[in-house]
Specification:
Order of helices and strands: HEEEHHEHEHEHHEHEH
Strand content: 15-25%
Radius of gyration: 18 Å
Number of strands: 8
Helix content: 25-40%
Strand order of the largest sheet: 1-2-4-3-5-6-7-8
Structural class: alpha/beta
Number of helices: 9
Length: 275
């Protein structure tokens, strides 16, 4: 951990003093039958990806918004995101989570968000941008609902996402069954608790093998999700799954997430480079 933090400090110093770079943020619309179409997405490209004659390809980070957010939430709330993409030489993709919790809803055929991301979004990005098409060079993370979604998708699709993170994630949904429209996506907990058991991240841990996904997650100590994140940490330890876990001062807000994303992108960059 000390080496990790030292690397972060050095890279942030470089980031702070570096000259302003030219980057590009596309806002695109993707046609899909899995959710109400079209679906808007922001794509942040590093400077090195803007050369018309260049052949270099780049790793990709999918960055998911939380409940009440949209495709532009990260771009608006973390103004340094484009410079971070340029610093690390990675493409950052921010889809619109639409309060879906990133599931394929068993009760709403117009909210098949998991299928949209796996079958529509990732193939579109790979076909239209200079990405390295390998799970080892592809990561997914997010905040709150998006933290749940990132681990949900990576644990179920490690052939797509070899690296995953969560910031203040709702990694066990069952204590919060009356909140954040979840019952509109998977029904009432009291009517079918088994559906809820199948749709919560912490219950995917027994299906994992060590090294299947590079995992990092964290939560503020005063966050209402702190207990479920700690329980996920214990479950991963019990299963023998290596992971990076941190508790830091903070609550469920953008001040915390704007700091947390610095650690996540550093973690992914190290994994992309085989460290």
């Amino acid at each position: 951990m000390k080496k990790f933090l030292t690397s972060l400090a050095l890279l942030l110093l470089l980031f702070t003093v570096s000259a302003k770079q030219t980057v590009k943020t596309d806002t695109i619309s993707i046609q899909t039958n899995n959710i109400v179409s079209p679906a808007k997405v922001c794509v942040i490209l590093p400077q090195k990806a803007l050369c018309d004659t260049c052949t270099e390809k780049f790793p990709t980070v999918y960055l998911l918004n939380g409940y009440g957010g949209d495709y532009a939430s990260w771009v608006k709330s973390q103004p340094e995101l484009s410079r971070l993409a340029d610093l690390y030489g990675m493409i950052i993709v921010t889809p619109d989570g639409r309060d879906s919790w990133y599931w394929d809803s068993p009760i709403d055929p117009k909210m098949q968000m998991e299928s949209y991301i796996i079958d529509d979004l990732v193939p579109y990005i790979d076909a239209n941008y200079p990405t390295i098409q390998s799970p080892a060079k592809r990561a997914i993370t997010g905040l709150s609902m998006g933290g749940h979604g990132a681990l949900w998708l990576a644990f179920r699709h490690s052939d797509i996402f070899g690296n995953a993170g969560s910031m203040s994630g709702g990694v066990d949904i069952r204590p919060f069954d009356q909140k954040w429209k979840m019952k509109l996506r998977i029904g009432e907990y009291k009517d079918n608790p088994e559906v809820w058991n199948r749709h919560t991240v912490i219950n995917l841990v027994p299906s994992l093998k060590n090294g299947q996904v590079n995992i990092t997650f964290d939560c503020g100590v005063d966050d209402f999700f702190s207990k479920v994140n700690y329980n996920l940490h214990k479950a991963l330890l019990s299963q023998g799954i290596d992971h990076d876990y941190a508790e830091r001062p903070g609550v469920h807000n953008w001040k915390y997430w704007n700091n947390s994303i610095l650690y996540h992108l550093l973690f992914f960059n190290q994994k992309f480079n085989g460290k």
